[in-house]
Design a protein that fits this description.
- The protein has 434 residues and is an alpha/beta fold.
- It folds into 2 domains: 190 residues, NAD(P)-binding Rossmann-like Domain (Rossmann fold, 3-Layer(aba) Sandwich); 219 residues, Dihydrodipicolinate Reductase, domain 2, CATH 3.30.360.10.
- The longest helix has 20 residues.
- The protein is globular, with a radius of gyration of 21 Å.
- The two termini are 34 Å apart.
């Protein structure tokens, strides 16, 4: 599948502007939601911390919103989320026992319930499967980022985006900076020329380690990996795709294009023991854009190291942090009200549904996801990775079947040896003991 590597500034600006607070939405003849009622019924698929938080954010975003169905592959995760949400949502919690689901097919049961919107906050590998089914069934979607872990999964979202457009469905992704007022105002000024042509920049997500769940007796390989999904590239995409994608998205947004090349380094220095799977703990990759801009993409998850999360955009006539200030001839500092972006993204989604003017971020999110995969693969392979390389790659990291049992851990990437077009679950020689 070949996709034009050049994404116009107009598309990036359009997707951002559509999310701005206070937009007036006009009705659409193709609107799928049953108009005439303010009630919005959410379903939740993936009952971990982020999914639970997103359900709270949705109820906070607007009146008339309720949680009507929940599902998770693990019953204990469903139960712990349910206890928290009953307390936090009050009367907005309307999940009956008949609409509580666990197991591999829980997502289908939630989608098939009488809901208007479905939140997807499972490990990212499941996003292509889950969201495609939701759109098939005519549900609006809030999906956490990323939306896939490999090119095969992400490519599916171009078709999903088209189908959502045909059905008049809204799809909002969990890249909340695109809905945050201070980012919206600053990036709009960048697009209007406040710092001149963007020529360079740096984007960072540098932090310490994250949570880890110790293996318990009786857990199969699959269960242990799912409960520690962060540390397995086939489940999370690695932290450069799962987390640093936020900053890469801001880079693409500010430049107004997607990158054409990626080259750099990465590796494992601290997290090398088996319980940390096979992801890297640091990346530093340079991104080159069609207009000549170069952006350094850096991220790490290493204890006792310097921390910084943010973006720095350099223009021919000034600089900006993309989030709050611009320096140069057209200096600016944001000092207005900045609503919680985790709530605002749901407010914009709900407003689009009620107003009949769908927001569809699936295509833009797929473009950003491919950009993040380019960064990962430049470090994993040690090669220069182009947009065409990533988009047309036959790489597929998905296991042949989703079932509990043995699940070998394929070997960690080795720059200079690891190939881009790998299919590790079809290559026994790449598997090691799980």
């Amino acid at each position: 599948m070949k996709i034009n590597p050049l994404v116009s500034r107009r598309n990036f600006v359009k997707s951002s502007a559509a999310a701005a607070a206070g937009l007036a939405f006009m009705p659409s003849e193709n609107f799928a939601w049953a108009a005439g009622s303010d009630a919005i019924r959410y379903g939740l698929v993936g009952c971990g911390g982020r999914g639970t938080g997103a359900a709270v954010n949705a109820v906070e975003a607007a009146s008339g919103v309720t949680l009507a169905a929940m599902g998770d592959v693990f019953e204990d995760r469903l139960d712990s989320s349910k206890a928290k949400l009953k307390e936090q949502l009050g009367d907005a919690y309307q999940v009956s026992s008949e609409r509580e689901f666990s197991g591999w097919d829980a997502y289908k049961h939630v989608i098939d319930s009488e809901v208007d919107v479905v939140i997807f906050a499972t490990p990212p590998v499941f996003r292509p499967l889950h969201v495609a089914y939701a759109v098939e069934k005519g549900r609006h979607v809030f999906m956490e980022k990323p939306i896939g872990v490999d090119p095969a999964g992400v490519r599916a979202f171009f078709d999903v985006a088209d189908e959502a457009d045909r059905k008049g469905l809204s799809i909002v992704a969990g890249t909340q900076r695109r809905h945050e007022r201070r980012y919206l105002e600053v990036v709009q000024r960048i697009h209007d020329g406040a710092i001149g042509e963007v020529v360079a920049g740096q984007v960072y997500w540098n932090q310490g380690g994250l949570w880890k769940v110790d293996r318990k007796p009786g857990w199969s390989d699959m269960e242990h990996q799912l409960r520690n999904w962060l540390y397995y590239t086939h489940l999370s995409g690695d932290h450069v795709v799962e987390q640093h994608i936020h900053n890469i998205d801001v880079a693409n947004w500010a430049v107004g294009e997607t990158p054409i090349k990626a080259s750099g380094v990465g590796g494992r220095q601290q997290r090398v023991s088996p319980e940390y799977g096979h992801i890297f703990d640091h990346f530093a990759v340079n991104l080159e854009y069609p207009g000549g801009a170069t952006i350094l993409s850096m991220c790490k998850q290493q204890e006792n190291t310097a921390k910084f999360v943010g973006e720095h955009i350099i223009g021919a006539k000034g600089t900006s942090n993309a989030a709050s200030w611009i320096k140069g001839e057209h200096a600016f500092r944001f000092d207005g009200e900045n609503p919680n972006p985790y709530v605002q993204e749901h407010a914009n989604l709900i407003e689009s549904i009620r107003g009949g003017n769908p927001i569809n971020e699936a295509r833009r999110m797929a473009e950003t996801n491919i950009s993040a995969i380019m960064v990962r693969e430049a470090a994993y392979t040690g090669q220069e990775i182009t947009w065409e390389d990533a988009m047309n790659s036959t790489q597929n990291l998905t296991p042949a079947a989703w079932e509990f049992g043995d699940m070998p851990i394929f070997a960690a990437a080795v720059p200079g040896e690891t190939a881009l077009n790998r299919r590790p679950f079809e290559e026994d020689e790449m598997a090691v003991s799980g």
